[in-house]
Amino acid sequence: MAFESAKSLTRRKFGLLNQEQIGILYLMAAAALADDDYDGAAEYRAEAVEVAQRSRLQALHAIERTHGRDSTEFIDGQLGYASWLDAQGRTEDARLAYVATLELVEGLGDNPALTVRVLQEMAWGIGAPSTTISGLGLTVSSPPRQLARARRVVNRMTEPDTVLRAAVLRDLGDWHLLVGHRDSTVKFYRQASELLAQVDDGEELRLAWFEEAQAIRPPGNQLLRSGVLTLSPDDPGGHVDVTFVVDSTGRTSDILVTDAEPAWMTGMAAQQIAHARFRPRLQDGELIAAPGRYTWNFRYDPAVAEGLGLTNDSRVVEDLPAVAHESG
Q1: Could you tell me which residue, 305 or 199, shows the higher pLDDT?
Q2: All domains of the chain, ordered by start, with CATH?
Q3: For the whole model, what pTM was predicted?
Q4: Number of Cβ atoms within 10 Å of the Cβ of 22
C-alpha cells in the first residue's frame, strides 16, 4: 500500500509516464516476491517495462513536434525506439515500429541510402533467426527479405555508394555465417573487402570490419523478464568482462571471465558468450580464428537474484565448451 501511494504521488507530480515510478515498480515486485506472490511480482515488472516503453514513445512524439516527422532526428529516434522494443523481446511492437519507419522514409521521396539503412536495421531487429543464434541447429535457406531488398536498392542507386554496398554485402555474409552457410559467408565477405579497397579510407573500414572478431548480434539474455536485470536507474550497475577465441565458424571457445561485478554473474555471462556468434577474422580472403573481447553492462536487483539462488557462488555452469572462470 505504501508503494502504491508513492507511485500515485510520482504520477501526480511528474505525470503518468515519469521514469521515477519504474524504480518503485521494481521495489513492489521485490516485495511481492518476498511474500511468495510470483504472479504479482511478474505483473509489477511487466508494468515497469510498459512504463519505460510508453515513456520512450512519448519522448519520440516530443521530437516529432520539435523537428517534424521528416527530420533526421525523428527517424533516428524511431529506429532507436524500434531497436529498444526488440531488445525487450517485444518483437511484434518492434516490427510495427520498423515498418512505420520504412513507410515514412519511402514517403519522403527518393532517398535510397536512408532506405537501405532502415532495411538493414529491420533485418537484424526482426528478421534474424533467434533459434539459430541460440544454437538450436535450425537452418534457414535464405537471408531476410529486408537484406535482399537492401541489396537491390543499393545496386540501383544512380549515384553509387561503394561503402554502403559493401556494408550490405557484409551483413549478408553475417547472416550466412549465422545459419552455417560457410561458402556464401566467405563469398560476401570477400566481395565487401574488395569493394572497400576501391574507396578512400577503405582500409580503415576493412580493419574495423574484418581484422578482429566482431559481435554479429550482442549476447542476449533472458533475465529481464525474471526481474534479475532491471531498467531502474536506482538499481546497482554491474559489468562482466569476457575474453574468448572465435573460430572460423563464428563460435566461441576458451571463454575466460576476467572481471565480474557482481561475481555471481560470471557463469551467466559465460553462458551468453558460449551461445553468441561473432564475425571471425578475414585474412587473405579466408576466415580464420581470432581473439575476442566483450563487456556486458547491466543493472540488477540483488534481492531478486538472491531469491532465485543466483548469488550462490558454488553454482556450476554446465555444457560450456572450455570455459575458465575468474571473478573480479
Answers
A1: 199
A2: 237-325 (3.30.1150)
A3: 0.74
A4: 25
